[in-house]
Amino acid sequence: MSREAYLARVRDATQAGRAYRIEPRGEVTPTTGYVGGGDDLCARFAAEANAVGGTAVVVRSFDEARAELAKVLRARRAESAFVWRHDVLDRLGLAGLLAELSVAALDPGALAKMPRDTRRATILTADIGITSADYGIAETGTLAMFARPEQPRLASLAPPCHVAILERRQILPDLFDLFAALDEAGTTAGAPHKVPSNLTFITGPSKTGDIELQLTTGVHGPGDWRVIVVDG
Amino acid sequence: MKLAYLQHEHHEFRDAAADAMADAQLQGVLGRLADTLGVRNREAWEDFADSAATRERARRIKDATLADLDKHLETLERSVTRLGGRVHWCDDGAAAREAILGILRQCGAKKIVKSKSMTTEEIHLNPALVEAGIETVETDFGEYIIQVAGHRPSHIVGPALHLNAKQVAEVLSPVAGETLSSDREELTRFARRALRSKFAEADAGITGVNFAVAETGTIVLVSNEGNARFTTALPRVHIAIMGMEKVIPRLADLPVFLKVLARGATGQKLSVYTSLITGPRRMGELDGPEEFHLVILDNGRSRILGGPLRESLFCIRCGACLNACPIYRNVGGHAYGGTYSGPIGAVLTPLYDGLSQNHHLPHASSLCGACQAACPVKIQIPEMLIRLREQLHHEPRALGRVERWAYGIWARAMRSPRLYRAGTWLATRTLGRLKRSTRWLTKLPGGLGGWTRTRDFPAPAERRFRDWWSAGAGDWGLGAGEGASPASKEPFDHA
Predict the structure, then answer these.
(1) How close A201 comes to chain B (CA, Å)?
(2) Least CB-CB distance to B225: which of A24, A208, A211?
């Protein structure tokens, strides 16, 4: 069987290759590469998210956040919203807001009941995606999204505009902190199910530099990427 | 540039390079590389306080991983299998193509979407899929453009870098069924529309792998456009293909690599989208594939793993060395002839495709070291190129007869003080006389003229060092009577 021959070949080469290991230079510690997020994680998160071409605002309350979101929905004349079911969105009162503005809410519950083809077509034509995130990362202005039945992957990808609502307590200083949190959750060898089927980091609107190295946004994912940070 | 070079792999670096240098449009595009990606990459290292140490850290993880590669690969297989995925071990390109076609046949796939993968370029997957009657669509914007144009990628991360906006419009207009303008926004909007329907219709998605985490069976995909996310969210089957060196042991190793990869590739702190995919979709989830296959490719890697150029397997395919390289910035990617171009391509192509037929590539470098300085894992590319040049000398077929003969004489002379003495005597009396006002000879006579066609030759001094020395200069002509200090009697002491 070719698997055995393959691995035997790799085993021999691995052994032989040890004669050519590199010489370490300089000192390296488990925190090498850690940057952190400074004193004010919300402000740093927003500054970084804006720097990468997003639109991030920090607000004091869920009321303010709702008003911000309403502005975006009106400005984009959204008729349908692909939304997550999430604790933060419940506290925001998302369902009420969408009803008030007559925006059709496509939530995972409703979508799950549709036949596969209808669901696909519906998802791909939604005007806006509204989510929270599992974590924000202040150092880079990044959202970390874990896929679950109530939090589908495509809500942050398919619509031309994605808005995420994030609370201060969700923001970590650095990418390293997120992996430390995963580690605490028990993602050691032999327990791959402890990691979500899909964990996506999002840092900015969809971008391409494929024509003449010039930046163009919105090529596949949202060109309009917004984060509302609730600091209160 | 000759169309054949854009379309097919070749072994004609010198002709293709000359062609590229004479192509005004290509020179225009390449001219921007240094000021855009090149600068951004350099600034990213400068702005990152821990840059040198973090790259060293990434480098050590790669080294340690390769020192136990067999174990990590087996762990990876175990993790993927436990999640319900399937691992396919493939010795070479033919085996990998066969495995992928087998999976597609089994699930009855007629249409597939792909996100950018250099490994699928390496195994020439697309022609095999098309031949099997499977509609194959590249979804990275740059890859899509060159797929329609029928070109090979010219850069590891910017495959369509060799085309300007006007040319892109010419390429895409027939597909659009209308005349597209050369406005970037308009072209991008067209691609978004055209590719959406492809994602929706595809039966399977094929991707590469940036990193594969052994302990969790997680494969990591990095992109800025989001096409890799669509490719792995909508189709029912996901096939990922990786070179076996892409494995890393632990999830905790990943942030180190994500930080250096994005900086190396585009000067970003993080790329826009990084997806960690751990097996097929789980119970109740609305999107994601139902089937997951991981193809682990050898294709010559195990041969390199056991040898002195093992370090080439550290490469994380970011393209930073291309942007930094004065040669690449003049000749572009297609001149190199192989799947991978630039400095790292000049190492990888001879290693994988054969040294003697790619004998120009190790010489396609001034050894300035810009590649190593830009590399996120600090691969010692110049040293590897020198080693390849040395190996070339032992492959007689790769050298011309005159060259072999000249180097043979040189080697003999350098080993014998008597011959060396005779040689330098001869040089000062022949070439030394050719010297005009400068220390460089711009034209050598006769058969030696090949050397000065593209570079100058250092002129021998009019007087040999040994003659000068024995004529009394050995006293250094220092202040009369004082004599030199003992340390400075060493003629090669630069202090």
Answers:
(1) 5
(2) A208
Inter-chain residue contact B188 with A216, CB threshold 8 Å: yes
Residues B398-415: tens digit of each pLDDT: 667 777 788 788 888 889
A-chain CB neighbours of B252 within 8 Å are 179-180, 183
* Residues from chain A contacting residue B285 (CB–CB below 8 Å): 147-149, 152, 197
Parallel/antiparallel/unpaired status of strands B457-458 and B440-441:
antiparallel
Cβ contact, residue pair B79, A213, below 8 Å? no
Provide Rg for chain B, Cα atoms: 27
Q: Which helix (H) or strand (E) holds B121?
A: helix B118-122
Tell whether A13 is within 8 A of chain B (Cβ): yes
What is residue B36's DSSP assignment? I
Chain B environment of A21 (Cβ under 8 Å): 63, 67
pLDDT score of A92 more than 50:
yes
* Total domains present in chain A: 1
Query: CA angle A74-A80-A86, nearest 5°?
Result: 95
Q: What is the mean pLDDT of residues B183-195?
A: 95
The answer to whether A209 contacts B306, with C-beta atoms less than 8 Å apart, is: no
Check residue B337 and give left, alpha or beta (phi > 0: left; psi -120 to 50: alpha). Answer: left
Model confidence at B48, pLDDT cuts 50, 70, 90, reads: very high
* Domain-embedded: residue A7: no
Query: Could you tell me if residue A70 is inside a domain?
Result: yes
pTM: 0.90
User: What CATH number does the domain containing A148 carry?
Assistant: 3.40.50.10420
Give which of B39, B81, B171, B310 to mutate to test A binding, by max A Cβ within 10 Å: B310
Does some domain include residue A131? Answer: yes
Residue in chain B closest to A139 (alpha carbons) equals: B269
CA distance A22 to chain B (A): 7
- Give the domain extent around A112: 37-230
Domains of chain B: 1-31+319-399 (no CATH), 53-138+203-303 (3.40.50.10420), 413-489 (no CATH)
Q: Does any CB of chain B come closer than 8 Å to the CB of residue A154?
A: yes
Question: Each residue of B304-354: pLDDT tens digit?
Answer: 999 999 999 999 999 999 999 999 999 999 999 999 999 999 999 999 999
Distance CA A117, CA B264 (A): 40
| Domain-embedded: residue A107 | yes
Of B171, B177, B376, give the one whose Cα is nearest residue B265. Answer: B376
The answer to whether the complex's ipTM is over 0.90 is yes
Q: Give the phi and the psi of residue B154 in degrees, each rounded to 5.
A: -105, 0
CB–CB contact B308 A20 (8 Å)? yes
Which tens digit of pLDDT belongs to each residue from B234-264? 999 999 999 999 999 999 999 999 999 999 9
